[in-house]
Amino acid sequence: MIIAIDGPAASGKGTLGRRIAATLGLPHLDTGLLYRAVAARCLADGTLDDEMASADAARTLDLRSLDPEKLRTGALGEAASVVAARPVVRGALLDLQRRFAEQPGGAVLDGRDIGTVICPHAPVKLFVTASADVRATRRHRELLERTCDIAFEDVLADIHKRDARDSHRATAPLAMAPDAVLLDTTHLGIDEVLAAALAIIAAKTAAAGA
Question: What span, in angstroms and rounded, lies between the C-alpha atoms of 4 and 101?
C-alpha cells in the first residue's frame, strides 16, 4: 500500500507520515529531507546558485546519509525551496522516490508532489494543510526548541515566501491531486489528525477491496 501525503510547509504532514508509518508498520520517507540534503551540500560547496551543481548533488544523494536533526533548520528550509524549484533536481530525485514507494509492502511518503507526480496511482492520497499563522507558530516553536533564535514574524514571512514558490514553480508545483482527501489540521492536535487519517486509509482500503 502506497500512502501519499502532500501539503505546504509546516502543515504537519511529516509528523503525520511518521505516525502513520509507525502505526501500520510501513517504511516512511520525508521527501523534503532530500531537497534539504541537496541544499546543504550546495551551501557547503558554495554552489547554491549553480543549477548543475545542485543536480549533481541530487544524483549522488544516498538515503542512508540523511540526518533529520541536522537538516531541519530554518536556513535549509529556504535553500531547499530554491533547489526544489529546479527541474533538473526534481528529475534526478524522481526515480529514487519511486523506488522507495514501490518496495514490497508499500510505503508512506510525504512531500509536495507525491500524489500528483511521484505516485499518481497511489490508492491513498492525503492533502494536509493548515492556516499560515498556525503553520508559522508550529515551525517557530520547533526552531526555538532547537535553540534557533528567530522572530515569529520572520518565520511567517518565510512560510508565505515558500508557499508562493512551491505553488507557482513551473515543475511539479504544490497542488492537491483530484482524488486526494483534504485534511485541515488548523484546529486539530496530532492524535486527532492521526485518527482522521487512519479512518480515511481504512475507508480507502475497504473500497479498494470491495
Answer: 9
Average pLDDT rounded to a whole number, residues 17-38: 96
Under 8 Å CB-to-CB from 104, ≥6 apart: which residues?
none
As given in the structure block, the three cell numbers for residue 9 are 510547509
Question: What single-letter amino acid sits at 176?
Answer: M
Buried b (16+ CB within 10 A) or exposed e, 156-168: bebbeebbebbee
Strand partners for 156: none
Positive/negative CA dihedral, 59, 102, 34, 176: positive
Confidence check: pLDDT of 210 > 70: no
**Which pLDDT score is estimated for 140?**
92
Alpha-carbon gap, residue 100 to 86, rounded angstroms: 21
Report which residue type is found at 116: T
Q: What CA–CA distances, in Å, run from 43 to 24, 39, 113, 129?
A: 36, 6, 24, 29
Calculate the alpha carbon distances from 184 to 12, 68, 108, 128, 193 in Å: 10, 25, 19, 6, 9
Give CA–CA dist 210/195, Å, rounded.
23
Name, in order, each residue with C-beta under 8 angstroms of 54's C-beta and a sequence gap of 6 or more: 38, 39, 42, 47, 48, 83, 86, 88, 89
Provide the whole-model pTM: 0.91
CA distance 45 to 31: 22
